[in-house]
Amino acid sequence: MTDFTPPPPSPLLIVISGPSGVGKDTVLQRLKERDLPLHFVVTATTRPPRPGERDGVDYFFVSREAFERMIAEDELLEHALVYGQYKGIPKAQVRAALASGKDVIMRIDVQGAATIRRICPEALLIFLTAEDEETLLHRLRQRHTESEEALRLRLATAKQELAQMSTFDYVVINREYALEETIDTIIAIIEAEHHRVPHRKVTL
Amino acid sequence: MTDFTPPPPSPLLIVISGPSGVGKDTVLQRLKERDLPLHFVVTATTRPPRPGERDGVDYFFVSREAFERMIAEDELLEHALVYGQYKGIPKAQVRAALASGKDVIMRIDVQGAATIRRICPEALLIFLTAEDEETLLHRLRQRHTESEEALRLRLATAKQELAQMSTFDYVVINREYALEETIDTIIAIIEAEHHRVPHRKVTL
Fold first, then answer.
1. Is residue B112 within 8 Å of residue B105, measured between CB atoms?
2. Which contacts qualify for B152-160: CB closer than 8 Å, 24 or more apart?
3. Which residue from A90, A147, A178, B40 has the fewest beta carbons nearer than 10 Å?
4. Domains in chain A, number
5. Could you report the predicted ipTM of this complex, rounded to two decimals?
C-alpha cells in the first residue's frame, strides 16, 4: 500500500519572544481573540499584577515561597529571575496540552527562549522585534508603569537581546499600527510548520 | 547602532512538484489569479499543446531541434525526457526574475525537483500530493487525453514519486473540492519563509 499523505503533524511548542516593549502581550492577546486551536500557556510569576491583569488568565500570580517550592520540585519547564521577580512555565500544563494534540503557544523573554531551545530543540521560536529603537522606547514609555531608570535598563537589555535574533527560527517585525499583519504572519508560520517535513517532534 | 530588524529576505526559488494528476497546473493557475508578487516560470517543452494551452504563457512550445540546441548551449536550469518529450526550465528567465527581487515559482515533476535541489540547495521545495490512489486515478482519467496504458504508467510512476516526499521541505495535500485551502497553505508557506532565519539565499 503506497502512502499518499505524510503522517499527521505532532503538536508544536511555539515560543513568542523578543525584548520588553515589543508587544508580546498584545500579540498573544490578539491571537487569543482569533479563536485558533491553540493552548495559551499561563506563566507563573511572583511580580504583582498590573491593572486589569487576572490571576490564572494573564498569569498565575504566586508568592515567592510557592514559586521557590515549584523550582525545588522541578515543576517548571524554565524559570528566570527578571528585574527581581520570578517568572516560569509550569511543566505539567504544557505536557497536558501537547498530549491533547493542541499546539501550545507561550510568550517568554529572550533568556527564557534560549532555555526552551536547550531543553527542547524542536520548539518553534519566533522573535518579535520593533522597527527601531525610537518605537521600542515609545512603547515602553506608554506603559506609564515604570521609572526612567527601569526604562533605561530595559532598553539596554533589549539591545543585548537583539543580538540573539539569529538563533531563532523566525523573525517578525511587529510594526506600529500593523498588529493584524503581525498576527497574520504568525498564523502563516504556524500553518506552514504543519506542512514542514520532517515535522518538529516535541518531547519534554 | 543596534540592528532592530533582520536583513530583507532574498527572493525565493519555489518549486511546486508532485505526481502527474495531483493538480500542479491547476494550483499554479489559481495562484496566478490571486495576483501575488510572484514570477511564474514558463517551462519549455517539445510536447504538443493540449487544447487551450498558449505558447509563451502555459509553456514555450519548441521543436526537438531547438530544445537540443538549448541543452547543448547549457541554457537550461534543468531538463528531462518525460514520456518521450523534453521539458526544461530556461536559466536566463529565472536569473532575471530573481535579480528583479521577485520570488520565482515553477511547477516541475519530481525528478526535475531533485535536480533543482542538487543545483540549488536553498530552493524551497513543495510536494503536492492527493489524499489517496483513487483520487489520483480519477483525476488522471478526467483529462480524457491519454490511453489506459499511459494512465497505468503515470500511476506506477506516481507511486515511486511518493517515496520522494520526505526529501521536500513541505508537503501539501491537494484535497478534492479544497483547492482554495491548498492555495492558502502555499501562500502561508511563502509568507513564513520570508521570516525564516537564516533566510534561504538562492544562487544559480
1. no
2. B153/B83, B154/B19, B154/B20, B154/B21, B157/B19, B157/B20, B158/B19, B158/B20, B158/B21, B158/B22, B159/A2, B159/B133
3. A147
4. 1
5. 0.88
Q: What is the pTM of this model?
A: 0.89
State the CATH number of the domain containing residue B165. 3.40.50.300
Residue A162 sits in which domain range?
A: 13-193
Q: Is residue B143 part of a domain?
A: yes
Residue B93: name the closest of B141, B132, B59 by CA. B59
Measured CA to CA in angstroms, residue B35 lies from B38, B39, B82, B99 at distances of 8, 10, 31, 20
**Which residues of B lie closer than 8 Å to A, measured between beta carbons?**
2-6, 127, 129-133, 136, 159, 162, 165-166, 168-173, 184-185, 187-189, 191-193, 195-198
pLDDT digits (tens, 9 = 90+) for B28-69: 999 999 989 999 999 899 999 999 999 998 889 999 999 999
Q: State yes or no: is A118 an active-site residue.
A: no
- Residues of A within 8 A of B136 (CB-CB) are 4
Query: Is A203 part of any domain?
Result: no
* Domain-embedded: residue A174: yes
